[in-house]
Amino acid sequence: MFETLIDGATLQDHLHDPAWCVVDLRHQLADTSYGERVYAASHVPGAIFLHLDRDLSGPMTGTNGRHPLPDMQSLATRLGEAGIGNDTQVVVYDDAQGMIAGRLWWLLRLLGHRKVAYLDGGFPLWLAEGRPLSAEVPVRPAAPFRRGDLVPALADRVDADWLLGHLDSPDLCLIDARGPDRFRGENETIDPVAGHIPGARNRCFKDNIEADGRFKPAAVLRSEYLALMAGSDPKDVVVQCGSGVSACLNLLAMEVAGLHGAKLYAGSWSEWCCDPSRPVA
């Protein structure tokens, strides 16, 4: 069972295993049809496609951020329809250093499904290693997907009200996964307000990745996160980003590092900044 990362060679050995399901999650925020186009051109053989906006997010209300969490039962039904059952080994990938694929990794864990791993290096490394491609859209039989108990470390959901009430808590360690410039309030072109949540520390999701696209070694990640946490317990860590997507990669990195129990503030900056009564740094 693979719960965090999987390499290309191992995945290639299981491409025809009916107990495995590969999910292509390529997406661009500025071009939301991009993923479907590139998937139609070529993808990992047997991979299905899921869309960040339609499949992994709920409807926006104007006050709940750019990628609200989907209804969990609807997501479970969608996964079952796509051929993902409770015993399926899921492998997720994108071409954005895990920025999108991490969201499904986390959502599956939230549903109690631990058999999910990110393809280390993503689609770019799969291409660079000369591994097989296909343009065929697979037809997988539907599988019953029953929601399990929430992974204990993720059971405590963090929303804006909870976070507002804990901003001054010495136990809170809030980590923002956006780029350093947006964290500093510079070059903000996505959200209407620039800045960050007071007290947050910056750890861009890209800082988990080496030059070849693979994750840094577990020992390196552990050292870097422990330094950032400065004595905080991993269970007191809350991660966020712009809309609750790229921050999931920091959660994955912490799991790789053996630092368990961090939580996601799914609404993230795009939800936080829509209410002018909430403080901004």
Automatic annotation (TrEMBL):
Alphabetized Pfam families for the sequence: Rhodanese
Chain ranges of the Rhodanese domain: 16-135, 168-279
Domain of life of the organism encoding this protein: Bacteria
SUPFAM superfamilies, sorted: Rhodanese/Cell cycle control phosphatase
InterPro entries from the UniProt entry: Rhodanese-like_dom (IPR001763), Rhodanese-like_dom_sf (IPR036873), Thiosulphate_STrfase_CS (IPR001307), TST/MPST-like (IPR045078)
Keywords: Repeat, Transferase
GO molecular function terms attached to this record: thiosulfate-cyanide sulfurtransferase activity
Gene3D superfamilies: Rhodanese-like domain (3.40.250.10)
Keyword Repeat applies: yes
Statement: the UniProt record of this protein carries the keyword Transferase: yes
Designated name of the protein: Sulfurtransferase
